[in-house]
């Protein structure tokens, strides 16, 4: 979740859901145990899901074997109440909710004690999503422009509700600098990353150690109708998917840790053919 548009919410949601689904596998009846719920009326996740299904249908028509979406996809419309009950789902083990950038902010939000979510439908949807959430992931690109909206999202919307959250740096282009850290202090060596880390530390927000890097393969994936577990096997594709596998592993999924180890082994020789 982040009030700022285009920070990687949908990219993070669908790819993390894909890794999680592959790590937990199907249930005894062969059904997906992971779902993505789009609460975004603009619906970029819907568009994504439709592309995947279309691609699948087209390719199968031509006799090629491809996979369908590795999770169930549900577009939410109408009464937001069911969103507030997602945490009690018996049907799914993990549910990932994609949220819109637009949250229907209250025009009086700057007044002390005012809830920045407005009284209209967008605010109602966001309130229900937050009532039903165990945990919120907040993607934050290492760009000063994203700092203020992220501050509002966390300080005005998440913290007052007491919803656990974690910030992660998203969409970092490895060509703009290394993600290595000073071993003594744990601080990033690259300026923009370090500034972002300092901004997060300043407010004491919990931060994921994993930086989700920018790879063109992710940008193209939606157009091609793919999620990261379906990328062709290449060095770059493995590195790109690795960030989502690491994130899934961090949430205690053993199958995901095995994938991280396999990717480490396969990519440990720089540029190795895999
Ligand atoms: N790690 C990444 N690598 C490459 N491209 C990325 C990455 N993260 C996001 N993008 C691209 O940036 C654009 C915005 O990403 P995305 O749609 O995930 O953001 P969003 O926060 O869901 O946006 P909105 O607020 O409009 O819903 C998309 O074109 C996406 O493909
Ligand atoms: Mg989106």
Structural description of this entry:
With 274 residues, the protein is mainly alpha-helical. The chain has a single domain (9-231), classed as Rossmann fold (3-Layer(aba) Sandwich), CATH 3.40.50.300. The protein is 39% helix and 9% strand. It has 8 helices and 5 strands, in the order H-E-H-E-E-H-E-H-E-H-H-H-H. The protein has a 3-stranded parallel β-sheet with strand order 2-1-3, covered by helices on one side. It has a two-stranded parallel sheet with strand order 4-5. Strand 4, helix 4 and strand 5 (165-170) form a beta-alpha-beta unit. The radius of gyration is 19 Å and the shape is globular. It starts with 8 loop residues before the first helix and ends in a 7-residue tail after the last helix. The model has no long low-confidence stretch (mean pLDDT 88). Bound molecules: adenosine-5'-triphosphate and magnesium ion. Magnesium ion binds next to helix 1.
Summary keywords:
mainly alpha, 274 residues, two-stranded parallel sheet, Rossmann fold, globular
Query: What strand order characterises the main sheet?
Result: 2-1-3
* Mean pLDDT metric: 88
Bound molecules: adenosine-5'-triphosphate, magnesium ion
N- to C-terminal distance: 35 Å
Number of domain units: 1
Radius of gyration: 19 Å
> How large a portion of the residues is in β-strands, by DSSP E?
5-15%
Strand elements, count: 5
Summarize the helix and strand pattern as letters: HEHEEHEHEHHHH
Give the helix/strand class. Answer: mainly alpha
CATH class annotation: Alpha Beta
User: Count of DSSP helices?
Assistant: 8
State the CATH superfamily name: P-loop containing nucleotide triphosphate hydrolases
Based on the coordinates given, report the CATH architecture: 3-Layer(aba) Sandwich
Helix content: 25-40%
For this structure, the quaternary state is: single chain
Largest sheet properties: 3 strands, parallel
Segments where pLDDT lies below 50 for 5+ residues? none
CATH fold-level topology: Rossmann fold
> Given the C-alpha coordinates, what overall shape results?
globular
